[in-house]
Give the backbone structure.
Amino acid sequence: MVRLVIASNIAGKDPLLQKRPEPLFYALPDHVPLRASLVVRTEFSPEDLDETIKLFQDLIRIDTTNPPGNEGKAAEYLKMHFDSNGIDCEVLGEPGRENVIAKIRGQREKPRLLFESHTDVVPAAGVGTWTHPPFSAEIEDQWIYGRGAWDDKFDVAVQAMSLILLKRRNVKLNGTLLYAAVADEEGSGSGAAWLTRKMPEKVTAEYVVGEGGAPPIQLGKQKVYWITTGEKGLAWFKLTAKGALSLNHIRCLF
Ligand SMILES: [Zn+2]
């Protein structure tokens, strides 16, 4: 079995990601993560994986550092792939901050499942300290290195390939599968806001698979997958602590 292992840049070199994330396996029969398993459970051919890796590397090499973003470049690149596979696709949004959406119709309109991801990345701080340049997408020892490899071009690529493989294999879906790779998630969220305000009918879905959640955790004998119920909101809460107060306690709280 061929496996695809994807990671962000090297541990400790990126101040935004201090620890090496748990690898995600896209096609391992004994470890199929929720966000990759909903669509494609069939085995991948080596060619499928090569194509996925190429798409993923190309996306990392498109510099969509936010600000300014320039996500339209990534959107157009993805549209080219969807178009060449006969998948309905549109590039929509403010000039330079475009989103890309795609759709595969099922036998019924509903339910609708949305694959959601974002094409922008945060600035690559400390470029000189990276052992692999942040937009190189170099592969070493089964790991792909680059800004956005983990957040969130992994999702952009595997979700796009999921649509492409489903289309090629002519898989009959019960409902509709939607795809949206949005701009400016790392900033104000203006890409998703534009879509949901201007044309909500194109992205409204009963179910969404996005970058939220986290790698699964083991609770006793069960593997538990996280479900995100919201993002970028406020959750006010009040903490009450009892005992002697010290500076360290204050640090723990804040
Ligand atoms: Zn993200």
User: Anything to note?
Assistant: The longest helix spans residues 46-61. Helices lie at 34-37, 46-61, 72-84, 153-168, 190-198, 247-253.
